[in-house]
Amino acid sequence: MSLFSVLSVSASGMSAQRTRAEALVENLANAETTRTPDGGPYRRKDVVFITEPTGSPFSAVFQVEMNAGVTGVGVAEVLEDTREPEKRYLPGHPDADAEGYVGFPRVHPAEEMVDLMGASRGYHANVAAMTAIKDMIHRSLDLLR
Amino acid sequence: MVAPRLHHPTGVLNPIVTSLERYMDLLSTRQKLVASNIANADTPGYKTRDLDFQFEYMSLLEGGAPRPVEVLGLTSKNDGNNVSLDREARLLAENALRFGVASQLLRGEIRAVRSAIQEGRNG
To answer: What average pLDDT score do residues A26-31 get?
Structure first.
C-alpha cells in the first residue's frame, strides 16, 4: 500500500462526513415538515459509519488478510427515527387529526447543530491528514530532483 | 520468516541511507494508520491502531513487515470508539516533521554522491 492509496482513506472519511452533514442539514430543513410522500410527518435521519477497505477489490481483500490495519470508512446505513411524532395541538392545521393534533418530526435544532459541528470537525481532520500525506509525497518526489 | 534485508550492498551510497529508507518506510506506514484512525473517528466500535515504533524499527532492520496493534489506555466513548483526535493530530504533525527531516538528510546524501560524480566529470 503506497502513500498514494492513503489519500483514498482520507477521501473516504471526507465523503462519509459529508453524507452525515447532508443528513443533518436535511433534518434541520425538515424540522417542521408535517407531510411526506410516504404519509405522516418527516422522520429524522441518522447516518451510521462502518470501517471499509479502500482500493481495488483484490488489494483490499489482500490488505485485510494481511491484517495491515489500514481501513477507510463508509456509510453502513441511514437510520430513520422510529419514535412517535411529536403531537402539537393545532386544530386549524390542514394536517390535524380528528382531535386537532398535528404530528411534528422529533428534530431538535440544537442537537442537529452540535452534530453538524462534529461532522465539520471530522471533515477538517481528514483534510489535514490528506495535506500531511501530500506533503510527504512531495518530499519523497523532491529526492529525485 | 523474511530474509534479512540489511546486508545488501548499498553501492555508492552511505549505509546510513538504508537506515533512513527504513525509517521513512515506517513513518509512512504509521501515517497511514493515523489517516485511517482519523477517517474512522466517528465509526462505532472502531479501536485506535498504531505501531510500536521503537520495536518495529529494530525488527525492520532484521527484516519483516510492521504489524499494527491496538493502542491501550485510551478512553472509549459510549459507542465503543476510542479515537482521540488530539492524539492523531499530534502524531500526524510529528510524523510529517520526522519524514521531512529524514528526507532532508537523504537529499544531503544523494547530493554528496551527485556532486562527486559531477566534479569527477568536470575534472
So the answer is: 93
CA distance readout (Å), A57 to A60, A61, B105: 5, 6, 37
For residue A56, with 0-12 CB atoms within 10 Å meaning exposed, 13-18 middle and 19 or more buried, which class applies?
Answer: exposed
If 0-12 CB within 10 Å is exposed, 13-18 middle and 19+ buried, where does residue B17 land?
middle
Q: B-chain residues within 8 Å CB-CB of A135?
A: 96, 100
A55-65 pLDDT, tens digit each:
666 665 665 55
Q: Which residue of B has its CA nearest to A137?
A: B28
CA distance A75 to A21: 12
| Stated pTM of the model | 0.80
Q: How far apart are CA B37 and CA A86, in angstroms?
A: 38
Taking CB atoms and an 8 Å cutoff, what residues of chain B touch A140?
Answer: 24, 103
Closest CA to A76 of A45, A47, A54: A47
Cα angle A24-A29-A31, degrees, rounded to a multiple of 5: 90
CA distance A54 to chain B (A): 10
Q: Which residues of chain A neighbour B107 with C-beta distances below 8 Å? A: 142-143
- Using CA atoms, how far apart are residues B123 and A52, in angstroms rounded to an integer? 58
Q: Which three cell numbers stand for residue B79?
A: 459507542
In this predicted complex, what is the ipTM?
0.79
DSSP H helical segments within chain A, as ranges? 3-29, 57-65, 109-142
Phi first, then psi: give them for residue B10, nearest 5 degrees: -95, 0
Grade residue B14 by pLDDT with cuts at 50, 70 and 90: confident
B118: left (phi over 0), alpha (psi -120 to 50) or beta: alpha
Go through chain A and tell me how many residues it has. 145
